[in-house]
Specification:
This protein has 164 residues and is mainly alpha-helical. It has 5 helices and 2 strands, in the order αααααββ. It has a two-stranded antiparallel sheet with strand order 1-2. The longest helix is centred in the N-terminal third of the chain and has 55 residues, at 2-56.
Length: 164
């Protein structure tokens, strides 16, 4: 009879420890994700505000200040393509270059939004690659509806398109 109570006691202690661990892990994950998602939302909002200012600002100090504000919000290791687009626009501030900057940042913001949705879900693993795939599927579907046909898929998974 003593063995039964010892086994029951050990099982109860083990169950309590596992339950406490899962509770603490869940609460800390939720707090972290909530704060990160809110901060990234502020980042996206700031870029949405700054990009039109960059494209519409006259040459000079105002445009350089907006450019610097945008570049400071970018990751210097992962967002180099965005910085290159901005610098191309700064050297040739034409409507076409401005449209290229806007299109690049639309894609960047869309990927980040999809990533945030995945990270907030029950299964947040591999959010970056899953968001890239999700955006690529959406882009391909939109291109098919518009009558564009994918021609070449690059290593990054981005399609070069031609009109059929």
């Amino acid at each position: 009879m003593v063995e039964f109570w010892m086994t029951a006691g050990v099982a109860a202690l083990f169950g309590s420890a596992v339950g406490a661990f899962v509770s603490v892990w869940t609460v800390s994950r939720n707090i972290k994700h909530k704060s990160v998602i809110e901060e990234r939302q502020r980042w996206r909002d700031a870029l949405r505000t700054l990009l039109p200012k960059l494209v519409s600002a006259k040459r000079g100090k105002a445009r350089e200040q907006v450019r610097d504000s945008i570049v400071l919000r970018l990751n210097p290791y992962k967002d180099q393509a965005a910085m290159i687009r901005i610098d191309q626009f700064m050297s040739d501030p034409s409507r076409a270059e401005g449209a290229e900057v806007i299109a690049h940042f639309q894609d960047l913001l869309k990927r980040d939004w999809e990533r945030a949705k995945i990270e907030a879900s029950q299964f947040p693993w591999c959010a970056r690659s899953r968001s890239d795939k999700r955006v690529a599927r959406q882009k391909n579907a939109a291109d098919r509806e518009a009558g564009l046909v994918p021609v070449v898929t690059t290593a990054a998974g981005v399609n070069d398109l031609t009109v059929s």
